[in-house]
Fold this sequence. Notes:
By secondary structure, the chain is of the alpha+beta class. It is built from 21 helices and 24 strands. The longest helix is centred in the first third of the chain and has 30 residues, at 2-31.
Amino acid sequence: MAKRGDSVRKAITIAVVIISMATVGAFSAQKGDKPLPPVYQKWLDEEVVYIISPVESDVFLKLETDHERDLFIKAFWKHRDPFPLTDQNEFREEHYKRIEYANRNFGRLSSAPGWKTDMGRIHIILGPPISMQRFEDSSFAYPVVVWSYQSMDRYGLPDQFNLVFYRRYGLGDYRLYSPIMDGPQSLLAMVGVDQSDPSAAYQALYTQSPELAQYCLSLIPGEPASPELPSLMSEQLLLNIAEAPAKLVDDDYARNLLHFKSTVGVEYSANFIGNTACVQPIRDPSGLTFVHYAIELERLSVERHDDDFITKLLVNGKVSDPEDRTIFQYERAIPVKLDEQQVKAIGPQKYSLGDVFPLAEGRYKLDFLVKNDASKEFTSVEADVTIPNSSSLSMSSLLLAYKAEEDRSSKIKAFKVGDIQLFPALRHEFTTRDTLTVFFQAFSLGLELRQQGVVRYVITGDTKAAKTVDRALKDYPDGDSFLEMIPLGDIPPGYYKIKVSLLDGAKKEVLSGASNFMISPVAVLPRPWTSLNVHASPQDQVYTSILAEQLFRKGETAQAKALAEKAYRANPQSPAVALSYAKMLFAAKDYAAAIEILTPLYANNLYESLELLGRSSQALGEYDKAIPFYKEYLSHFGANFYILTFLGECCYQTGDVQGALTAWEKSLELNPDQEDIRRIVETLKKKK
């Protein structure tokens, strides 16, 4: 029996050694050749070594400047602050108090500082025990101290457990005891007992102190264990304690700080907040497909201004195709203004913002960046989306909503389908009081399937069908869109999956989709406070113009020009539509037509037309007309090296060499990497 216990210990010892070697190697590789400045090395290796997650450590080592490291440290403590709206950070204060206590009270029996000892490490991670027992003056055992803990569930640890520290052979500092790695024989100081036999060592301890003997088998009160089969739960406990601090924080902020540190600005980069998001393309009856999205912020921070609470959310959206070309990009400002009563009414609710934009057919990557102007917090969302060809048989993913309201306005809003405004359940959480609203779209179903087909909704939990609803396809009047409301009152709380199948007349499955959801045991779930941007009806030609620009960026110039012209002919008074059409004409080298479209815009003080007016005039060789357009552009929008380069060319062509030199030299100041311009400037200067 003793051999069996030894084999268990040897196998685990080998595994631990291998894991330890791999960990050290990985950490060393991450650090690279360039050492950290001493103050940051001390912070990483001493001050937070026990509480920093592997992701956070990896990100910190990849930062390049002290300013970035300072921002990271600020974010590190902020994401552990239990009350982030106050100036005090209780977690940080408590952490440094624990380090100070460890250095003052531990390490006296060794040359290591207190924070490096096992007792110091545990005290820093878990804090002081609720009780302590000492077995230090016996002749039968080496000095042993037992710490008892309770209510550590926030770390994912057992409700009650003990930690045993002992001085091996009565020498050195106290080390943390493992029932598997150490065993009862490592505590026993009696002579005449076979130290290689765990059972004999346990019996010898038991005759002197049954309580200490029980501690040596298991750290979990009440767990059955024996010397031959020591507690695996205790070993798992010790591993979980080492990993516990990382469970208290969502380290996504660290990844995002590294990813966005060069794009969101230094004042934002330390203040990442989490979110829950939903992105769904929905084809409108007009034939356009709009991307609908909702982003629920982890929190909404506002500033008090007199009697109001205000902020401004800046939403930047970017759509890229598989070739990494930016197909569509926009920025929208969402002002938020609340009175005190509204702030109180929102209470624990989260804030959800929703919006839509049209998107051409294809596969894309979507990136959303949301910045809070008041608190300098930011969050991000990434999603892959496909806008399908509606001429092929297909079905969208399922959208699950907790509420549906009638809205007969012609305006477009996020998740408004027809005359119904849907409120997506972003976490797919419901109660038995809710009605599960399921929405999806299916295309090219064919006449026979529409007349004879059936939509089957099956809710299953634990492999058993909890509810089935069949509905004839012809009962849905809205063409490609399908919406079904399913009351949940007769389904008990639990985890479920809903599968939606389109069946033909022979009940054969043609298309299907599924989604998981949960029915909570609570009576009411807090739903987000929702803000939705409102846009013009789908018939507005501005959407056609946007699609034209997207196709143009994808390289589909002929189709893009046709769409842009269609939009302009339908609404020539729209500046945005006219400007977009002029861009297509310029790209098609129809410069005279572009000038014809742009001239009324310029007359109405739309200064965005100046660049195209200048470039079109320049392309026609009308340099004297282009020069004032470029100069006026610079007066309105500031220095731009492209415009300065064009201006220099026009000045040179009209014989104004000094004007050309002035423009080109300013252009080189803004962008020195223009070797052709630099050579021309040097040549002209030599001729003077």
